[in-house]
Amino acid sequence: MTLQIAEVSTNSKAHEPRVCWARQIRQTRAVAGSIKSASSAQPGAGWIPFHPNPRKPGYRLPVGAVDAHCHVFGPAAEFPFAPERKYTPCDAGKDKLFALRDYLGFTRNVIVQATCHGKDNSAVLDALRTAGNRARGVADIPANISDAELRSMDEAGIRGVRFNFVRRLVDTRPQEFYLDIVERIKQFGWHVVVYFEAQDLEGLTPFLRSLPVTVVVDHMGRPDVAKGIDHPNFRRFLTLMEDMPNLWSKVTCPERLSVTGPPYNDVVPFCGEVISRFPDRVLWGTDWPHPNMTTHAPDDGELVDFIPKIAVSVTQRRKLLIENPMRLYWPEEGIGQ
Fold first, then answer.
1. Considering 67, 91, 218, 287, which one is annotated as catalytic?
2. What is the DSSP letter of 61?
């Protein structure tokens, strides 16, 4: 069984259009037919689209597994990218995401709002409504959002908000901006997802400690893998995990962290350390469609095969892939409670 997504593009200047479509997605058992997408735009040479033909994973995911970190981009003709964006991806809409979900063997998705769409969550909300109970979402919301809008998002499946502190991706904001939003979302039981880089954790620590909700860190706070697991930056992150029982971590994106490249073995000690120490507070996801990649297009089948390297027991894998994401995003089902 193969999944084929052919990408055709032309290099162009920032924010100029490019052709980027899926010619065919074939799946022998779970997905049939083809998916075609509309035109998109890209910020210039260097960005690599998602893998056109990921392999079938050797590791068979357990029934009920959740891809707890993925995105949808566009299609731009239907869901335009934000004018203030720092990058522009090719189209990677809900149909492609759900085809990949079925092909890899996941049961559900958690779809995270990407910065290329700014604070317009329409693409994520549309995907959630299409998926029904098979997807939940994390939004990026403005400070002036109304309670009615928050309630509508909650009904659609939003269960958290994302705060991005990576300066190359977003403009910085005062911490009071984020605290005001946290006060607004508490009534819905939502959590906060934070994205930052390792060198910025020390300055962010007082803010993170002040948050009265569950906090999920993207990609282990992006440690510098070349410096090893004993580097003060990574130890600081582990210490914060110990001190904050409401702090979770995604053990994701080895393709972004690795120095050696596929199969990303240099990232294994970092993920393994977090999983072994905090097995009830870890999540895993593909990060499809892998925005801003400049070195290679990650093979999503290979990423799934990374899982048993970092979660070495059946119990660890069940917590990582099923119990933890179900407890956070589908608590009403009572799994992992």
1. 287
2. P
What is the residue type of 139?
A
User: Is 287 known to be catalytic?
Assistant: yes
Q: Is the bond into 83 cis (omega within 30 degrees of 0)?
A: no
Q: Is 86 exposed, middle or buried (0-12, 13-18, 19+ CB in 10 A)?
A: middle
Between helix 300-310 and helix 94-104 the angle, nearest 10°, is: 50
Classified by CATH at the fold level, domain 49-333 comes out as TIM Barrel (3.20.20)
pLDDT in tens, 225-263: 999 999 999 999 999 999 999 999 999 999 999 999 999
Tell me the two tokens of residue 316.
Answer: 């660890």
Tokens of residue 307, six digits: 């899982």
What the block records as the tokens of 183 is: 């006060």
Q: If 0-12 CB within 10 Å is exposed, 13-18 middle and 19+ buried, where does residue 63 land?
A: exposed
Structure-block tokens of residue 251? 């053990």
